[in-house]
Each structure stands twice: as C-alpha cells, then as structure tokens.
C-alpha cells in the first residue's frame, strides 16, 4: 500500500509556508522518515526542489491520482525525531518565521561533499624531553614555541588549527619545532578528537560543600529525567564550571548526553582543554569558524553516539542527541545567545522549551544573571543556587570609583584620572600588566553635560538620546527628535558634548604617558584585521605586552594571571547606549572587567572612571553586588514597563519607499489593534528606526508592550496575515520579541 508524506518545501516565502502532500514510492519507502530531506517536483514546471518531511500517513488528503511522488532522498541529512520539528514549530510560532527557515535552524545540514581532512600535531618526545625544550624556549624568550611545547608536555596530539588559532602559534614556529624532531604533522580525518592527553587520570578535585549540594540536587533530576530549571549564581572562580563538569559526568554515567552552551568568546584554549581532559574523545567543540561540512560531521558524530558532550555557542543547542540528560547555559546573561538574524530567537528560551521536550534539567550559570532569569529565580520558577566562595583563594580586587567631573573641575582634561595614571605608572614599574577597557557601544555617543553630569533623555521613553550627524538628538525607541542643545538645562553650562572616545585614542594616550610600555589593542577592527582575538589574548596572557587596551571583547572569561590593574575608562558609555537594558549591561561589563584584576597571587586594583559615580549600576558593580543591583534595576523595569515585567514586541518595517512603509505600518497597526483592542497593550511609534535607511531601504519601527506575551504573538500573527493579503511588495516586516538591542 502506498504511503504519503507531508513536506515543507525549500521555498522560503510565507505565501507557500504550508506543507504539500507527496507519495512515497515503494523503492524509497525505507529511507523516508519524519525529518528526512527529500527532493520533489514542484509547481507547473515540475522543477525539482528540496524539502523536509514533517509527517507520514497511510491515507492522502487529496486525490491520489493527482499527488506527485518524491523523487529522491537526501542521504546526507538527518532523520530527526519529531521533537526537532516541534522545536522548529516553536521558533516559527514565537519569533515569527516561515517553517522552512525554522527547520533550517534546527537542522543546519548540507550534504557532505567528500571527506574533510585536517592536520594534527603529534608529540614525538617524551614528557621530560618536551619539558626540557620548553624551558630552553622560555629562556630564549621564544614565546610562541614555548606556548606549543607547554601544551605538548600534557598532550599527545593537538589539532593543527587549534594551535594556529586559539594558541596563536605561527606555522613557521610549528615548522621549526618539527625540524627539531619533537613533533610530526599528520593528516587525519575529521572524526578525530582535537586534543588527546598523555594520561587519562584527570584531576577531579574534591567538591566544596556548596558545590556538592548543587551537583546533588541537579544530578537527581538528571537521573530521573525531571524537567527542572536551575540558576547557579557565583562570581568567576566560584566553581561553576566544576559543577557543570560533574553534571555532565553524571549524564555520561547514565548513558545520556549533554549540551553546554558557552559564548564563543569564552572558548579559550584553556577552557576547551579542560573538557577534553575530563571527557576525552566523548567531547566535541563547535565554533563559528567550522565549515558547514564540519558542523554537519559533528552533528553526525552526535547522532551516531560517538560523542556525548557538545560544547559551543548558540548553534550547538541543535545537536541531535536522542537521550539528552541536561542543557547547561554558561554566562546565561550573554546577549550573544539571542540570534541577530531572523528569526530572532533567544537560545535560552528555546533551550527551556527543549529541556521540557526531552524531560531534562536546564542549568544556567552566571556571576551577573539576566534580570529576566533572576526574576524567575525569585519567583521560584527557577531554582536558585549560590556559590559564594572563590575557590582559587584569590581575593576580590580593591575597587575605586573616580568622579570624572571632579577631574575636569580641577583642570585634568586627560583620558586618565590622576589616580589611574598613578596606579598605571606603579603597575608598569613593578613589571605587572594592566588592562584598560572601554565600551565600544557608546561610541555613537550619548550627550551629556560635563559640568553636572546631566544626560539628555527622551521625554517619552526614559532612555538617553543619541547624537546624529545632522546635529540632532534622536530617540531610538520612538523616533523623537530634538536639536542638539548648546546649554545644559540643569546648570546652564555650555559644556554639553557627545561622548566620543575609542580604543585607538586610549592606546595613543598610554604611549604618550608611558613611552616604554608595550601595548596591545583589541577591538572589532583589530580582531578582524590582524589576527584572531584569541591570538591577541594569548599573547597578552603570555606576557608579550604590558597593557591591553580593548572593548568588551577583552573582559569575558579569560584569566590573566599577570594583571594587577584594570581601568574602566568611561563606565557611563554603556549606561546611555539608548536601550532599556543598558544598566544591566553596564553592571555586567564593569563586574566582569573588575574580575580580571588580581587573578594571580598578587592583589589587584580596579579603577572605574565615570561622570555618574552615584549611579546604582556602577556602585553595585564596584562592590560585586548582584542582588543590590537587581533590587534597584527591577524597580525601574517595573515602573517603566520593560521586560521582564512586561513583554515587548518590536515590529520592523523595511521598504524602498518611505511613504509606502509608513502607510503599511498604519494599516497593519489598525488591523492588529482592531483585534487586540487597547486592553493591556501599550504602543510606541511608529517611528523612524535608529538607522533610518540602509542600502536605500527605509526602516521604521513600532513597539508594543504587554504583560501578556500571547497578545504580542497575536499581533505578529495578524500582521503577518495582512501583509500577505495586501499583496506582494518589496516591503518587509520583521519581528523581534523582547529585543535585546535594536541599534
Ligand atoms: P567558575 O566557572 O565559576 O569561574 P571554575 O569551576 O572555573 O569557576 O573554578 C575556578 C578554579 O577553581 C578552577 O581553576 C578550578 O579548577 C578550581 N576549582 C573548582 N572547584 C574546585 C574544588 N572543589 N576544589 C579545588 N579547586 C577547584
Ligand atoms: Zn522616545
Ligand atoms: Zn549641566
């Protein structure tokens, strides 16, 4: 008897965002499953296109005589369980997407073309021979060589690209080590693990009582398959990762698998090595530099059971494990967990849904949790666990807030306060390292009075206005516009400026004040141009430079043992970046930055320079006091009706003609609001987007706020429907729920 399949085709247009029925030919019968990628004839011309099977049934809904047959099955693709399609549907429903685009996110698979070959470095020397060579390299100050040899004292083999990438050792250096006979370079197939350690008796430290309690609670849920949610709150060094490792271990013991999400930027060599050391070739690490083929290979290894632990950024979430024991999200507050492309899903929310499908616990960890998650923890929806002790025995650094208004008053116009300059001089004199941090986000510039600190805010939205090129101040939420003021309304001073300062300017200042100091700079530009950010970081970690100047890229998840001074040059910059989460981000950045000082055995100093020394985000960050921050921030969010106390939907309209999208915006608004009424909904806009035009496409935004998320989903659904009814145009409508940053 013939069987039939419902298929979502590869045409990404909401007009055909429905399934089509096809017959499964006898000879393909064994190969077609739910989730299979297939090729089918489509439309009048019977053009062959691909699609995914979302259902299989014995009786067709249409006339069997008119149903076309599946042409072939794509063998390189997965046959995922029905759960994956549910996840795709969840994404489609909650974030606005076509089904096919949602499927492509959870099944990011391309056919494998041929074998992928990689190279690895094989250690030939004994441990002591390598150690000897390492010490020689150190004494000759051959830092790259030393870096490689140090790892080889512990590792039998290391992936070649891991060495040139995360370890930042040049191919020439590798060649010279090869010539000395200590290593051999071999080709391997992609299945081999990146890192192999000489001995497998990994170090399992005895857990602290706090750690034991967390592990015990969560591991019980892993064992029983209970869908619970946990937040581990603990500063860096409080042993969160060690807790994750023990939960993952439990999963493996139970024959289950684990997914650990980590922000890409935190995937340093040391962090990655830590997992290979414990779990050997059961682990795979995903990162954005993998090719589509390599990604697919990693997923296939997961599917076949070769690996049981997947570590990586957002996309690692979709690893096709069939018996998932836990999903762990480290640094859960990181904005990189939200997709910046359509559909703009949040990996934390999708992970929570997945954990409920697979009946496993969801574990989140952070020193500075998102306000969203912490609120849930206080509500009891998420179990809160606190790790209160730094296990490394290091003390928290000494933190000082410097009022830049006073500096100016007393005639200091330099980027450095007198205090920072003094400490920096002393630090360099002692031969120790310093980090100077500035937040790039503020670059476009909030506008403030340098005399009294007054910041210019939108009268409607309670966010700071941004300066635009045409001497106007603009609100990025509602489009409110006013002329750039010449005089401060508070104190009548004329010292009203937009804030501008960059990493380059700071580097120059360091060179001018301390000509002997060697500096490294890292921001989006240098990371792209020169070498990997990992390279810069590992060079700094190895003492190649005295001062590291950079943006937020330098503050995340790296241990620099030599750093005893951290300067946050303008803490305000992220405070007025123009969205409601800026206090949260500022608190997070300063807390993280401050945590970089004094990670070794020497005490650390942190200097926070600001025009707003009394701001709660800055004060609580300087005390590493998350709860204090949360208490004040949550009041602001509640009063101003921002997430998590209220949900937000951002509707973006794009089109080649400004009048057209304006008209479309009004029409869609009318339709949506006819249905929702004005109950429990606040609309802001429509207004011009922060960047009103990109590539000749005009952009407008409408914001809706409601405590009822489903009401916002309804608005999205209605708008999607009416956009289609109004007929095909080049105008586009995008949706972003609880936007993290829209500009
Ligand atoms: P976090 O992830 O919170 O930053 P880690 O788990 O990385 O903390 O722990 C910080 C340091 O303390 C690491 O070097 C780790 O090996 C060590 N550590 C963690 N737990 C213990 C423990 N129970 N006993 C001894 N050392 C530990
Ligand atoms: Zn506004
Ligand atoms: Zn003023």
The oligomeric status of these chains comes to single chain
Shape: globular
Cα distance, first to last residue?
A: 56 Å
Give the low-confidence spans: none
Strand order of the largest sheet: 12-13-11-14-15-10-16
Ligand list = adenosine-5'-diphosphate, zinc ion
Radius of gyration, in Å, reads 28 Å
Say what the CATH topology of the domain at 398-444 and 500-567 and 583-625 is: Rossmann fold
Count of extended strands: 31
**Strand portion, in percent?**
15-25%
CATH architecture label of the domain at 398-444 and 500-567 and 583-625: 3-Layer(aba) Sandwich
The major β-sheet equals:
7 strands, parallel
Q: State the fourth-level CATH superfamily of the domain at 398-444 and 500-567 and 583-625.
A: P-loop containing nucleotide triphosphate hydrolases
Number of helices: 22
Average predicted local confidence, pLDDT = 85
Walk me through the structure:
The chain has 743 residues and is an alpha/beta fold. Among the domains are: 3-106, GIY-YIG endonuclease (3-Layer(aba) Sandwich); 398-444 and 500-567 and 583-625, Rossmann fold; 647-737, Alpha-Beta Plaits. The strands form seven sheets. A seven-stranded parallel sheet has the order 12-13-11-14-15-10-16, sandwiched between helices. α1 crosses α2, α7 packs parallel to α8 (240-253) and α21 (658-676) packs across α22 (709-725). The protein starts with a strand and ends in a 6-residue tail after the last strand. The model has no long low-confidence stretch (mean pLDDT 85). It binds adenosine-5'-diphosphate and zinc ion (2 copies). One zinc ion binds at residues 449, 451-452, 454, 488, 490-491, 493. The site of adenosine-5'-diphosphate has 15 residues, from α8.
């Amino acid at each position: 008897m013939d069987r039939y399949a419902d298929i979502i085709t590869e045409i990404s247009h909401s007009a055909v965002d429905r399934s089509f029925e096809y017959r499964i030919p006898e000879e393909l019968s064994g190969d077609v499953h739910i989730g299979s990628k297939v090729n089918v004839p489509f439309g009048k011309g019977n053009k062959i296109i691909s699609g995914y099977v979302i259902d299989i049934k014995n009786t067709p809904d249409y006339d069997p005589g008119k149903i076309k047959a599946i042409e072939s099955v794509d063998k390189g693709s997965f046959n995922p369980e029905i759960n994956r399609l549910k996840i795709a549907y969840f994404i489609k429903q909650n974030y606005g997407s076509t089904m096919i685009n949602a499927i492509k996110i959870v099944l990011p698979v391309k056919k494998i073309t041929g074998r992928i070959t990689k190279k690895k470095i094989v250690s030939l020397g004994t441990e002591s021979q390598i150690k000897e060579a390492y010490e020689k390299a150190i004494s000759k100050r051959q830092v790259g060589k030393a870096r490689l040899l140090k790892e080889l004292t512990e590792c039998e083999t290391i992936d070649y690209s891991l060495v040139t990438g995360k370890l930042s050792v040049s191919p020439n250096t590798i060649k010279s080590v090869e010539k000395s006979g200590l290593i051999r370079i071999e080709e391997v197939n992609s299945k081999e693990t990146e890192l192999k350690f000489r001995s497998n008796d990994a170090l399992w430290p005895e857990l602290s009582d706090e750690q034991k309690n967390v592990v015990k609670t969560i591991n019980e849920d892993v064992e029983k398959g209970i869908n619970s949610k946990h937040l581990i709150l603990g500063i860096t060094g409080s042993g969160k990762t060690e807790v994750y490792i023990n939960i993952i271990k439990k999963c493996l013991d139970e024959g289950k698998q684990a997914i650990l999400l980590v922000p890409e930027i935190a995937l340093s060599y040391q962090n990655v090595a830590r997992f290979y050391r414990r779990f050997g070739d059961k682990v795979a690490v995903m990162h954005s530099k993998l090719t589509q083929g390599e990604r697919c290979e990693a997923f296939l290894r997961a599917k076949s059971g070769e690996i049981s632990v997947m570590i990586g950024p957002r996309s690692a979430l979709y690893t096709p494990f069939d018996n998932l024991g836990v999903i762990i999200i480290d640094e859960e507050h990181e904005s990189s967990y939200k997709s910046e492309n359509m559909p703009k899903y949040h990996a934390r929310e999708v992970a929570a849904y997945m954990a409920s499908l697979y009946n496993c616990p969801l574990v989140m960890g952070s020193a500075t949790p998102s306000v969203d998650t912490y609120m849930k923890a206080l509500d009891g929806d998420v179990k809160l666990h606190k790790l209160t002790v730094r296990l490394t025995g290091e003390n928290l650094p000494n933190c000082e807030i410097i009022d830049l208004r006073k500096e100016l008053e007393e005639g200091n116009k330099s980027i450095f306060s007198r205090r920072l300059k003094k400490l920096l001089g002393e630090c360099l004199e002692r031969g120790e390292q310093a980090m100077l941090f500035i937040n790039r986000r503020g670059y476009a510039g909030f506008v403030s009075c340098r005399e009294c600190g007054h910041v210019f805010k939108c009268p409607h939205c309670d966010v700071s206005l941004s300066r635009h090129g045409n001497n106007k101040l603009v609100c990025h939420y509602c489009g409110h516009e006013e002329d750039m003021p010449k005089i401060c309304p508070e104190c009548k001073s004329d010292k009203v400026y937009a804030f501008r300062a960059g990493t380059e300017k700071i580097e120059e200042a360091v060179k001018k004040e301390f000509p002997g100091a060697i500096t490294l700079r890292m921001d989006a530009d240098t990371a792209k141009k020169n070498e990997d950010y990992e390279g810069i970081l590992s060079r700094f970690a190895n003492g190649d430079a005295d001062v590291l100047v950079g943006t937020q890229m330098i503050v995340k998840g790296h241990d620099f043992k030599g750093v005893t001074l951290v300067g946050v040059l303008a803490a305000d910059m992220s405070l007025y970046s123009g969205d409601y989460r800026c206090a949260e981000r500022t608190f997070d950045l300063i807390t993280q930055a401050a945590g970089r000082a004094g990670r070794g055995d020497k005490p650390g100093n942190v200097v926070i320079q600001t025009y707003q020394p009394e701001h709660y985000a800055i004060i609580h960050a300087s005390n590493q006091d998350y709860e204090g921050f949360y208490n004040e921030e949550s009041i602001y969010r509640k009063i101003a009706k921002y997430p998590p106390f209220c949900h937000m939907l951002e509707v973006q309209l794009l089109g080649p003609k400004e009048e057209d999208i304006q008209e479309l915006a009004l029409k869609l608004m009318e339709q949506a609001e006819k249905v929702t009424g004005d109950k429990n909904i606040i609309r802001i806009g429509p207004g011009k987007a922060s960047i009103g035009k990109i590539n000749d496409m005009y952009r407008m935004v409408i914001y809706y706020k409601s405590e009822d998320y489903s009401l916002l989903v309804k608005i999205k659904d209605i708008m999607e429907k009416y956009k289609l009814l109004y007929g095909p145009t080049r105008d586009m409508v995008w949706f972003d729920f609880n936007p993290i940053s829209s500009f």
